[in-house]
Amino acid sequence: MSELSAESVDRIVAFVRDGDRNKIAIADIVGLADLMADSFKDIFQAEAVEAYSDFISIADAISTMKADISELSASDIALNRIPTAGRELDAIVEATEAATNTIMESAEAMLGLDPDMDAPDYRNAVEGECMKLFEACSFQDITGQRVTKVVETLQHIETRVARFSEAMGLKGDDAGTLTDEEEVREQRKRDLILHGPQLEGDGIEQTDIDALLFDLDTAEENADLPSQPSDDIFDAVDLDSIDFDSIDEPTEVVEPSDVDRAVAKLTGTDG
Predict the structure, then answer these.
(1) C-beta of residue 139 within 8 angstroms of C-beta of residue 99
(2) Residue 262 to residue 271: CA distance in whole angstroms
(3) pTM above 0.85, yes or no
(4) Chain-wide mean pLDDT for the chain?
(5) Element (DSSP H or E) covering residue 75
(6) What is the three-state SS of 195-263?
(7) d(C-alpha 185, C-alpha 165), whole Å
């Protein structure tokens, strides 16, 4: 480490105190700079070691992330597995549709057979259509295999995504956010009750539907009935102020409408 002489230190102090440039030499300034550089050298070295350690940690994290992304096999999922699963689902729809048409056509053919046909001919015709039915029902085995392949693809994606999420330190309760388009679709499903076919135990029970329809029918029936005066109407009438002895016996039949008008007049609701 550079050293300053006592005279140089005195000249530097005098310069700082008095501001007299004539009291300090260039050698004094250079010596002070060397001393300060040597003093900060150890500090800079310690900071450099710490910064180097941080950069090494960042580089390791980036390498780990690259490895996790590579294991995610995003290209394989996007280019191979998802398109293959889409084609399998299309094939399932087509096979199901073809089998359904064959079953319906065979059933209609059997219903349309002439009952006056000879027994052997009738039997042969029915057996022929039954064979078509059996052949059409074989679609279940093929579609089952295709569904299994689609499920395996979904499980593969789920495993890779879960592993990547764990590597990134994401919590299991991080649901994420929906895009504006996804939010619009979800809101439309909620508003129009477009939940699609429900699994057993998840949908609305038939008893709940029956109870709802019963309540609607009951409400419609009650809407057709004439409204009845509430108890508040009779509470508003001061019966003690009425002299029932002075009321003459009725000489004619009192219509219900007359009673309603009388009650309305007594309660002040005759408008």
Answers:
(1) yes
(2) 12
(3) no
(4) 75
(5) helix 74-76
(6) CCCCCCCCCCCHHHHHHHHHHHHHHHHHHHCCCCCCHHHHHCCCHHHCCHHHCCCCCCCCCHHHHHHHH
(7) 26
Q: Averaged over 216-231, what is the pLDDT?
A: 60
**pLDDT single digits (tens) 130-158:** 999 999 998 888 899 999 999 999 998 88
Q: Which amino acid is at 69?
A: I
Burial class (CB in 10 A: 0-12, 13-18, 19+), 238: exposed
Predicted confidence (pLDDT) at residue 251 exceeds the cutoff of 90: no
* Contact between 83 and 106 (Cβ < 8 Å): no
Sign of CA dihedral 98, 104, 107, 111: negative
Q: Which of 62, 8, 61, 60 is nearest to 32 (CA)?
A: 8
What proportion of the chain, given as a percentage, has pLDDT over 90? Answer: 20
256/53 Cα distance (integer angstroms): 99
Largest CA distance in the chain: 141
Cα–Cα distance measured from residue 4 to residue 23, given in angstroms and rounded to the nearest whole number = 16
pLDDT at residue 69 in the model: 74
Alpha carbons 54 and 49: distance in angstroms, whole number: 9
Helices 139-167 and 119-137 pack at an angle, to 10 degrees, of 10
Between residues 108 and 251, which one has the greater pLDDT? Answer: 108
Q: Which of 128, 125, 132, 127 shows the shortest CA–CA distance to 103?
A: 132
Residue 243 tokens read as: 């002299």
Confidence of residue 220 (pLDDT cuts 50, 70, 90): low
